[in-house]
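for the writeup, i need someone to sanity check this before i put it in the appendix. the sequnce is what the collaborator sent (i think, or maybe the updated version? ugh). structure was predicted straight from it, no edits. if anything looks off just tell me and ill rerun, i have time this weekend
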Amino acid sequence: MWYSKLGNKGLWKAFNEISKHPRESGNEEGVRNYILSWAEKHSFEARTDQTGNVVIYAPATKGLEDLPPVALQGHMDMVCVKKPSSKHDFLTDPIAIVTDGVTVRAKGTSLGADNGIAIAMVMDILTDKSVKHGPIEAIFTVEEETGLTGVYGLDTELVSARRLINLDSEEEGLIYIGCAGGLDLQATMKYKTEAAVGTPLKVTVSGLLGGHSGSEIGKERGNAIKILARYLNRLPSVSIASIEGGTRHNVIPSSASAVITVENKDIALSIASALQEELSNEYKVSDPGVTLSVEDTEMPLVTMKRKKSLRLIDLLFSAPHGVKAMSTTVKAVVETSDNLAIVKMENGKVIVDFSIRSNVDSRKMLLSYEIQCIAENLGFKTKAAGSYPAWEPDPKSRFTKEVVKAYSQIVGKRPVVTAIHAGLECGIINDRIPGMESISIGPDLRDVHSVNENLGVESAERICDFVKKLLPTLR
């Protein structure tokens, strides 16, 4: 077994079992059934709400029955991405996990440690007979990655705890006490076609790292859709036959492509060569694999009418992507950003999706209005949806102070208490359950939402051990 030489066999065995079950957002039935059968096997009460979330109840260990209940929380779903050459079927195939003893990865796909490692930690904690704890409520939600559907539909009557430890953070040594709010914005435009003329070319942007649009938006990684638009914007004459890029609203696009027609192939190739040189220089540190390729392709029957092609290019080129503002209250944290996430053509419409985040709700709305203004002036219709509030930090929280003190004593150094630009479910739980206090922690997890996702082995084991030692101190 891949984890045979790792330290905490219980943790990695649980993670391996979770990784055998389908759990793409909206398709969590397989992993939910596994969690419920696991709870039954270990004689834990478990309940499922109408949204599909699961709450498991673990009684206190003997002598600690008077401790207040604590909730441990994570989400069941994962972002499913794979290499173009991979034949992996996320509906049926288990994640193929490998390790070098330092990190855990998957073969050709995303790993799903976001947030499968949270479930594995809870399973290990609840079955470790050496762990002492008060009553525990383990909350596992669905569809976190596609709009926080599960946590918004959580039956709050199932939760009695008023202190919650979220296990969905991605850097050891940090304790998060706040997170960004967000919303999704979609711009659509109907188009008509005309007979294709000129020279057909296929343009592809690839080799980018991508990553999570919250936690990694500040790393200045390339956005494949923006790079594609940058190229198309330079062409003196172009019509679009097809265009696609991006996979999820919360994933920085790592690839994009378009089939176009141009009047002069030589000019198009010359522009591509010059732009590739610029890109290689600009992204030599953050995205050294960036590649822009232009190649011959079959002549399409029709293209989008030229006027609409240019409007689409103008939107993709001019709409913002990336960091809009840094926080003035929390050092080195992104305050406001947006991810130009998806472009596609579907049923006679072109669709462009944006994901907007901010730790300040008014600035989230301001950035949304700015993008809407650009899009609507170019003839697009816009619609905002999925708005959720920011989680305002409260450094004076009694629970935060308890956890910080325990961390300092158990680990031997003081943690960094901060906020995160990504959205966290505990912020919404706080908003929905009066009196709830939350913190979020997690192990070192890199390149989430990509095929390069990797989890630090020792970091995951240390975080799991810390929670085990933390629980009996929460009075």
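The chain has two domains: 9-180+391-473, 183-388. The domain at 183-388 is CATH 3.30.70.360 (Alpha-Beta Plaits).
thx in advance!!
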